[in-house]
Here is the input.
Amino acid sequence: MYQSLFAQTGNLSWFVIKRNKLRFLIWLLALTALTAGTAASFLGLYPSEAERQALTTAMVNPATTAMVGRGYGLDNYTFGAMLGHQMLAMTALTAGIMNILFVSRNTRGDEEDGKTETLLALPIGRTSSLTSVIASALLLNVVLVLAMTGALVMLDIESINLEGALLYSAAIGLCGFFFAAGTAFSAQLAQGAKTATGLAFGLLMAAYTLRAVGDVNENALSWFSPIGWAQRTEVFVSNIWWPLWLLAGSSFLIAVAALYINAARDTGAGLFSASKGRKEAGFLLQGTGGLIWRLQRTGIFFWTVAMFLLGITYGSVLTDTEAFFESTNVIQGVVSQTSDLTLSEQFLPVLMSVMALIGTIPVVMAALKIKTEEKKDRMQHILGRSVSRIGQLAHYAVFSIALSIVMMLATAGGMALAMDQESLSGSTVFASAFLYLPAFWVMTGLAVLLIGFFPKYTFVIWLYLGYSYIAVYFGRIFQFPDWVGELTPFGWVASYPVEEIKPMPVIGLALVSLVIGAAGFFGFIRRDTNG
Amino acid sequence: MTILETTDLTKMFGRVKALDRVNIEMKEGEVYGFIGPNGAGKSTTLRVLLGAIKATSGSARIFGKDVWKDAVAVHRRIAYVPGDVSLWPNLTGGEVIDLFMKLHGTKNRGRRSELIDLFDLDPAKKCGTYSKGNRQKVALIAAFASDADLYIMDEPTSGLDPLMEKLFQKQVLEARENGKSVLLSSHILSEVEKLCDRVSIIRQGAIIETGSLTDLRHLTRTTLLLETKKPPQGLSAVKGVHELAHKEGAIQFQVDTEELDHVMAFVSAFGIIRLESAPPTLEDLFLRHYETARPQAQ
Ligand SMILES: Nc1ncnc2c1ncn2[C@@H]1O[C@H](COP(=O)(O)OP(=O)(O)OP(=O)(O)O)[C@@H](O)[C@H]1O
Ligand SMILES: [Mg+2]
Here is the structure.
């Protein structure tokens, strides 16, 4: 029994780890650096207790609660309490993304490429392959917990002691593992890596949103979210350990369920099997554009809905915030009093920058799809017929650009719908959203540049997007030096309506995207294609 | 009329020379076979001809046009079937065939359904559920249904069952009857013998033989078993004699078919008692070329 299911799992796990070691290393460094860096920057930003205490007034409002979670330990807002309150949810979210990408790549992705079948022919157990991926994910998260704990303890901050650091890191690591197990499970249900990854990301989004809604309305919804459980530890203040058992127990159950289905199903199949389709191409599937639409429409639909909902969520949070400050009169010191802008207008740029950075993900993915086609040997079918290389790449670029407009329309539309028009007009929301478009296009241009010259290194764009996120989002909170923000296109976008719109950055960004995009085309028509 | 011509085509992958001065000349209406061991450079040559990869030096022209610079113009008149057909798992076979025909610029509904029936493909199934052979069929149907003057096919029958292989061969011969040209690579000798007017043998990136099958037969060797009154002194030194061995009082050796005449004249001087001959086969020729590839490849 054990042999038939799990033979060779240990060896396979090493193999998985070996194949992913660079990816592991980058993630571990990034997450550890993010955690330690944030904690360290608190020291410089809020050296006195008075300053920390003053921050509580700024941090406790529906907008912030929706984003990071409910505040706790506010009467003595130590560095530890700040870290736990402001960073736990975000870091857990990032760890979730890491785990989802890792598991889906090594399960369904491999299965689609036929690698799993090659392995199954070897004397290994039926579920050894999946078990090895889950085991590697567990190990990855354990290493993450140790690295983060070590880094936090080494900072030697009074309120961040060993117990707190371990609890904080373990909560994040277990959240990560929860999503690893969740992805392993969704990979058993869906046929196709894309669907499996989509399901897992849906789960992550749901976890984050449930928590946000539950936290803002102070109701039980947060209890339906693993990220919510992690936050109930009230780490660095009360250090409650038992919610971790919820995380560990549920992750274990989900992993066992995944293994159970895996042992029962056929390789390559899913619980939802593929249905028959049409005998002939529909009127839309008439060329490269039709093919791109066909392959991406599901993803586009979900992203559009997600961005619309995100817009609605933030919009209603802004409305709540407006009401909150009106009723409590704690406005002093939080936002500028001298400004004649409403509170919502002053909050808008921060929220918009976050939504723009999220919206960039599908836009970059759309441009990079051409590389997937090449890698899977499907581009030759197109380029071998009467389609020029310029035409082919241009379709993907134009698609990506169109998608950037759709994403921002959906976001701004959702937000404008949920906003109360008196404090923030729809036109301000749309203007603020559209100002980000040239920055999107720089990312599209960068994707094209990489495809043209360095097709093997397109992952660099994700690192750059990660950097942009840290530079823009945390740069605002922690007041990084100016050049940090200037290294990303998103740092150049005017914080309308707080700042006024200047034509220079808009034109500059558009020009940069044009130049690097054109260079990418130049590279693409000259290089060898791989299939 | 020459339809396809390469001169000193060379392709380097970094420091690996995948193609070494390949010269091919293909006439209109010809079925041209390209044969050689694994890793010889067949697929690489075809991909250069398709403009997917750029030759390091030398030139390749199809219909008188440069395959790299005028790729799109060339592609309007050719149909290509890759060696390993991978398709979109969520699209059905019928959709893919339609898309391919559309991208090629062909509208030929009648031919399309005729071929689907002929190759016995279920066009409503998703490509993700097709077997390797069925994916191959999708590419072949799309190619044969497209209006092309030249078909370029990389091991087109790999994955097809014998019945489908026959159907494929019929399609190729039909195309030739209609004045089309076909360039195909293969490992299967019988297929090449049945279909091709001319053949090139490629090994380690270089073409080592080219010609019609009759030409190539001249390159084959006849195996002889000989018994003579006097020992045939000096036979091993005669031009065209190979692999001489003593066997049950007789001598067994191979003779290049071209040199048969004067070898016979030489041995008859020793007084022939017994002479048995085994007919030359192309199989031997290919195996010889394939085998000699190995020691050098290592
Ligand atoms: N993209 C590439 N990068 C580096 N080397 C390559 C690349 N493509 C092919 N090669 C090398 O070029 C040589 C020729 O390969 P090619 O695929 O043309 O062989 P083939 O004759 O088609 O073999 P097979 O019969 O196995 O299909 C091989 O040694 C191969 O390793
Ligand atoms: Mg090949």
About this structure: The radius of gyration of chain A is 24 Å. Chain A is about 75% helix and 0% strand.
